[in-house]
Design goal:
Length: about 240
């Protein structure tokens, strides 16, 4: 059979609080307060394209792993859920290093916002980097898509880490000055509860300071036993 290739064009771009890959949750819905939107491109920014969508609570997003796409794919990958030292076949994982670099996430649909010429689909529970190209949007159909007796393989349950989150006095005072972002505290709590450290750095104590970007804030934290201590939240 002759090989074929297709050209895909984005229908919109993700606007997300996650400005870099580090600390993004590994699946959608794990960080419920991660709100964002899909800014639609013309001609898909016409409200007609979304007529009836308000009757659905969740949407499937097909997107491109644009940040890692150039690195290609590998037959065997090391899923983070297995501590990074066991290998599974790419099609048995949700790895970003896959043929066609296509991603799939189910997100909560919050509404449509029209502001001047711009049409945005607002969603929450994102696991996507800011600027991710969206290739398609479909409604989530519970009768067909929810499979109550499905098996989750090596990732049968949502990951739990038991991590507590503490804010230093400095971080508290930083937060009090970020009034435009009332959800920032909750977002930080949910993101850090996932323990974004790579498996090989996980240990009860480390003197290392970690950093991540959420919105335009640079957030620094440290790990002590089961607690993530947020040290500083500085606007950039
Ligand atoms: N739910 C998706 C994503 C799973 S991998 C799917 O199953 O297809 C999740 C990881 O993808 C996140 O932790 C984040 O680090 C990474 N990611 C998110 N957006 C990305 C992008 N645009 N390019 C590359 N990696 C991305």
């Amino acid at each position: 059979m002759q090989s074929e290739s297709y050209q895909l064009e984005p229908i919109g771009y993700i606007e997300s609080p996650y400005k870099q890959k580090f600390a993004i949750p590994r699946q959608p819905g794990l960080v419920k307060s991660a709100k964002g939107s899909i800014r639609m491109l013309s001609p898909f920014d016409h409200p007609d394209c979304f007529r009836g969508i308000e009757a659905f609570s969740h949407l499937w997003l097909n997107f491109r792993f644009h940040e890692t796409a150039k690195q290609g794919w590998k037959a065997l990958v090391r899923p983070p859920r297995l501590g990074g030292n066991e290998r599974k076949g790419v099609f048995a994982t949700r790895s970003t290093f896959r043929p066609n670099a296509m991603g799939l996430s189910v997100v909560k649909f919050l509404g449509i916002e029209q502001c001047g010429n711009a049409l945005r689909i607002q969603v929450s529970g994102l696991d996507l980097l800011d600027g991710t190209p969206v290739l398609d949007i479909k409604p989530y159909l519970p009768y067909a898509d929810a499979v109550p007796d499905a098996l989750g393989g090596f990732a049968d349950d949502a990951p739990t880490t038991g991590m507590d989150i503490e804010f230093s006095p400095e971080a508290e005072s930083n937060l009090s000055r970020a009034a435009d972002y009332p959800e920032l505290r909750q977002l930080i709590i949910e993101v850090l509860s996932q323990d974004p450290r790579p498996a090989y750095q996980r240990g009860p104590v480390s003197d290392r300071t970690y950093g991540m970007h959420l919105y335009h804030f640079n957030i620094k934290w440290r790990v002590n036993q089961n607690t993530n201590q947020v040290l500083q939240i500085s606007p950039e």
